[in-house]
Amino acid sequence: MKRHSAAKNLLSILLLCSLVLFATSALAAKLSVDDCSKCHSQEPQQIADAGAAHKKEINCIDCHNGHRPVSQNNVPACAQCHEGSDHYTLANCLACHNPHQPLNVVLDGELKAECLTCHTEQNAQLVAAPSAHTEVSCNFCHADTHGNIPACTECHDVHSSDMTQNDCATCHAAHAPTLLEYPDTTQNIMCAACHDMAFSQLQASQTKHHDVACVMCHADKHKVVPQCSDCHGMPHAAGIHAKFPQCGECHNTAHDLNNLK
Description:
This protein is mainly alpha-helical. Among the domains are: 113-171, no CATH class; 188-251, no CATH class. The protein is built from 16 helices and no strands. It starts with a helix and ends in a 10-residue tail after the last helix. The mean pLDDT is 86.
């Protein structure tokens, strides 16, 4: 009798569990997007404010297919939808991205490999022109939030009191800072910040070089030294050029032509 009663109780429990599971499954099948916001208020608001494509192209149920407890894990892998880039093969998407506001990227820890899966152009510059910038993590400079571009002067002193943060980009690219390139409109005073002696000599010169912009001779890239003949041709008799093949043997430097040797 006791054995029969125990079996009956077990059957009742199993039947009750089945009914609960059936009811839960039926309820989940009937859930709509409007039902989600009845319990989840924060996530719909985040999507409304900054959902990007997650707001326009999909809805809650497209991602969360099923509901607990029927679905043990109804948080999908981002790679189920996102593909075509090394960035989408990274292991821990949620470390930087909240899927309900995916473009509000939070940068936590020391990140570099993760960033460079998207920013390949910047990586190429860092590799081609190794500097102290190559060694630091990306979010050492681009701290806290994605898209943050710091002022160079947060870490670096300006070359002279005449220069400001806005002048830095005239010559320096942040990801290749040692490869100086500048436009042909660069003023001599910018060069003088580092090349004080050359600038002072040029200012004191009574020759036509006094009025020539530094970038006219040292064009495009830093440390480019032209040949005098690029502008002047061969101004002396052939015999003089044969005896003194280097212009500087007589004319000293281009910044101090008055000092004939």
